[in-house]
Amino acid sequence: MNPQLPGRFVVPEVVATNFHFKAGDVVADFGAGSGFFLKVLTDTVGPTGRVFACEVQKNLVEKLGDTARLQGLGNVTPLWCDLEEPGGIKLRDGVLDGALLSNTLFQLEDKAIALREMRRTLRNGALFHVIDWTDSFGGLGPSSAMVVTQDQAIDLLEAAGFIFEREYPAGEHHYGLALRAV
């Protein structure tokens, strides 16, 4: 087990030390789900920054808004987004300083379109972080057939307009990738 990461799974406060986002940044959490990374992202970009919590499930978008209000996260904007549709992310081109795609890549049916759509929203040079499963673990995460390997992820991301920068530990059953939008 990686001594940096207690337990077996992603720990947002630990993994986020690899993001290198800064105060004032405008970032997105694509496939935000229940808001696992919301608090750490808002803390990182501070009160002058902004976090777009992008999610395709409308009920989760509402819950993200409730979570942000209950936790006093005034810099969070929940957005209903269809990552797999051109123009499905309701953000202008090049508006983001950074973004995160966590435990979502394996779920995307059209990965190429989704990654190009996410790339569209990032300014040139922006950081993009991808965290996903390395394996199928005890019924958690994707089935073996749905796992996107780290090498496959890098190939997909480079084809969508990113340059691989580095990998980092993200838990026993996950990989973490940092890329730059070009």
Plain-language structure description:
By secondary structure, the chain is α/β, with parallel strands linked by helices. It has one domain: Rossmann fold, CATH 3.40.50.150. Helix content is 25%, strand content 28%. The chain is built from 5 helices and 7 strands. It has helices at 12-15, 38-45, 58-70, 111-121, 150-159, and strands at residues 26-30, 50-55, 76-80, 96-102, 122-133, 162-169, 174-181. A 7-stranded mixed beta sheet has the order 3-2-1-4-5-7-6, sandwiched between helices. The longest helix has 13 residues, at 58-70. The N and C termini lie far apart (34 Å).
Secondary structure: elements and pairs:
Blueprint: H1 12-15, E1 26-30, H2 38-45, E2 50-55, H3 58-70, E3 76-80, E4 96-102, H4 111-121, E5 122-133, H5 150-159, E6 162-169, E7 174-181
Parallel strand pairs: 1-2, 1-4, 2-3, 4-5
Antiparallel strand pairs: 5-7, 6-7
What is the number of beta strands? 7
Q: In which order are the strands of the major sheet placed?
A: 3-2-1-4-5-7-6
Using the alpha-carbon principal axes, give the shape: globular
Which CATH architecture would you pick? 3-Layer(aba) Sandwich
At the fold tier of CATH, the topology name is Rossmann fold
